[in-house]
Write a structure and sequence with these properties.
By secondary structure, the chain is mostly beta strands. Helix content is about 10%, strand content about 45%. It holds the Pfam family VWA_3. InterPro entries: VWF_A, vWFA_dom_sf.
């Protein structure tokens, strides 16, 4: 789950902000610094799912509860992201100070002494310098991640499991947990809800767009990741185009679009195939390119089944065919085709593509 840590080098600064404990003075410094998890006052998660991508916005408020008000320390934010997570931006407010992320070129040396964010696989880290004890740290982090797709079901999985020690005292703070979810399946067909980790109330449903809300006062923060899964009608081959406006305050303000196709149910009878492989064997294909093509054709041939038909045509300045007609798939024909490729896949000469294309058309 998203976490905030006090980066403590001087143990003498550790104390409650409002009521000093009058502990004996501690001498020395910590190297490396100790990381003390901060108590969290508020959490708000917004997830916008469109096709196979989820745009996630997380807003949280932490309290620097372990440093006396007369002292300061750095605070480190650590935000885990879901599958193929990509950070879009972060803003942090501490009192009257505010910070935000900015994408810079690797060669740009002008950012040497400013706050930096570190991105590791599925993890984003950000350090806020010199935060006064007792202060509130409000952070908003945005990222995108992929939905998992399996057999017609889409699933979004977001790290949202908080350890018990980030819960502040219940008599001091009322803990309010909020999750907003919107789903834009991109399909005009029925969307079926399959499961969710947190109780969600459906707020609206309009065509292929659905919205849900979870909002509650809780005794403890969530102890499980947020997951939500749904399926779309997949009996027929379907597809479409989806336009996604740019996210507010994103450094890349361009709109995006996606063209998508779902194959539908896999239980239908597959039609017979007639395949002609047209391979360029000119001098430009010499070496690994032609070897890769030969391996790809061989693999494709192995996936054909009885009842299918195939042929192979190579061309440079001349044209060569494995057969004068479409051959029926069987073990003997596939073995002969592999032997023929080993003998005839030789890269040399120039390129004349019109002749083989006309030859392909004459086979059908």
């Amino acid at each position: 789950a998203p976490m905030a840590y006090a980066v403590v080098s001087d143990p003498g600064a550790v104390d409650t902000p409002d009521v000093p404990s009058y502990q004996p003075y501690v001498y020395g410094r910590l190297d490396p610094p100790a990381l003390i998890p901060l108590q969290m006052k508020e959490i708000d998660l917004a997830v916008d799912c469109a096709l196979d991508t989820a745009a996630v916005t997380l807003r949280a408020r932490w309290w620097l509860h372990c440093i006396t008000r007369s002292r300061e320390c750095d605070v480190r934010l650590v935000v885990p992201m879901g599958e193929q997570g990509s950070i879009l931006g972060a803003e942090v407010t501490v009192g009257r100070m505010s910070y935000n992320t900015q994408v810079t070129e690797v060669e740009d040396q002008t950012m040497e002494n400013t706050m930096k964010g570190i991105l590791k696989p599925h993890m984003f880290c950000l350090t806020i310098p010199q935060v006064e004890g007792g202060a509130d740290i409000v952070a908003t982090v945005r990222w995108s991640q992929k939905l998992h797709y399996d057999n017609g079901r889409f699933t979004v999985d977001i790290p949202f499991r908080f350890p018990y020690y980030v819960n502040p005292l219940p008599k001091v703070f009322m803990k309010r947990e909020k999750i907003q979810l919107t789903v834009n399946s991109g399909f005009s067909k029925e969307v079926l809800l399959q499961g969710t980790s947190h109780s969600l109330k459906e707020k609206a449903r309009q065509g292929d767009k659905l919205s849900f809300l979870h909002e509650a006062v809780v005794e403890n923060w969530s102890n499980k990741d947020f997951t939500f899964s749904y399926s779309v009608y997949s009996g027929d081959l379907s597809g479409g185009i989806h336009v996604q406006p740019s996210i507010s305050q994103d450094y890349d303000d361009r709109d995006t679009f996606s063209i998508f196709i779902l194959p539908g149910s896999g239980n239908r009878k597959v039609f017979k195939k007639a395949v002609v492989f047209v391979v360029d064997t000119s001098g430009s294909m010499k070496g690994k390119p032609l070897e890769n093509v030969k391996n790809a054709v061989s693999t494709a041939l192995s996936e054909l089944v009885q009842g299918d038909y195939f042929n192979i045509i190579t061309f440079n300045e001349e044209l060569h065919s494995f057969s004068s007609c479409l051959e029926k798939v069987n073990e003997k024909a596939i073995a002969s085709a592999n032997d023929w490729m080993n003998a005839n896949f030789v890269a040399e000469g120039g390129t004349d593509i019109m002749h083989p294309l006309n030859e392909v058309l004459s086979l059908f």
